[in-house]
């Protein structure tokens, strides 16, 4: 059983994305709010055909209050261009809305959210999916995969393929862009990441979804 109460009581079930953003920072569904600067809401068109789900806000996102504005976000921007995707056309969010970190001196070093923190925050992601109603979800990294595809899903084995979320919503899984930023084989891994995004584009273009 989760050691956190979960976000359900804080998630508004009426109203749209503006209401979600207004209420998100009040959430006490897990303990991450205690140390983070703020909760970071998703951003993008309310009726985007494609939704990208990452892991958590990073240091830059926590300070600035916007999704994917740090090194991983800059890499994602380049990959979107390569794949022929306009960032302004997609909805970007994270599976967990608060930054989890540990201090090393004055630096805040990212830590992966626990399974119970992912579960606690899940109602926010569900609500975003309900409001945006994307035709396809791009699942980036293991945390997003656990949140949306279950703990047994392996991104390394299933990346770049058409899969389905519970309920039948089509999705494509890939690595988190931060993994590409850190890669020792950057050119190869950036190319693979772009290829995965192109699969998502093809699924929309071919109306498979």
Question: Which descriptors apply to this entry?
Answer:
single chain; 209 residues; Uracil-DNA Glycosylase, subunit E; five-stranded mixed sheet; two-stranded antiparallel ribbon
Quick recap of the structure?
This protein has 209 residues and is of the alpha/beta class. The chain contains eight helices and seven strands. The protein has helices at residues 17-24, 59-64, 71-83, 115-132, 142-149, 155-158, 177-182, 186-205; strands at residues 50-54, 91-94, 101-104, 107-110, 136-140, 162-164, 170-174.
Structural account:
There is one protein chain. The protein has 209 residues and is an alpha/beta fold. The chain has one domain (8-205): Uracil-DNA glycosylase-like domain (Uracil-DNA Glycosylase, subunit E, 3-Layer(aba) Sandwich). The chain has helices at residues 17-24, 59-64, 71-83, 115-132, 142-149, 155-158, 177-182, 186-205, and strands at 50-54, 91-94, 101-104, 107-110, 136-140, 162-164, 170-174. The mean pLDDT is 95. Residues 41-198 form the Uracil-DNA glycosylase-like domain.
């Amino acid at each position: 059983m989760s050691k956190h109460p979960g976000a359900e009581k804080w998630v508004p079930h009426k109203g749209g994305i503006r209401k979600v953003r207004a209420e998100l920072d009040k959430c006490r569904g897990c303990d991450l709010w205690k140390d983070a600067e703020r909760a970071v809401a998703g951003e993008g068109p309310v009726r985007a055909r494609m939704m990208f789900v990452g892991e958590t806000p990073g240091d830059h996102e926590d300070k600035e209050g916007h999704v994917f504005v740090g090194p991983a976000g800059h890499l994602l921007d380049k990959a979107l261009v390569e794949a022929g995707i306009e960032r302004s056309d997609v909805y970007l969010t994270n599976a967990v809305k608060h930054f989890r970190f540990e201090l090393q001196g004055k630096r805040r070093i990212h830590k992966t959210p626990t399974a119970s923190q992912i579960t606690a925050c899940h109602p926010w992601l569900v609500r975003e999916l309900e409001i945006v109603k994307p035709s396809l979800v791009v699942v980036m990294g293991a945390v997003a995969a656990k949140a949306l595809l279950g703990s047994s899903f392996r991104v390394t084995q299933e990346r770049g393929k058409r899969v389905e979320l519970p309920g039948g919503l089509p999705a494509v899984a890939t690595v988190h862009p931060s993994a590409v930023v850190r890669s020792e084989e950057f050119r190869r891994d950036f190319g693979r990441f772009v290829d995965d995004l192109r699969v998502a584009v093809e699924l929309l273009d071919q109306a498979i979804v």
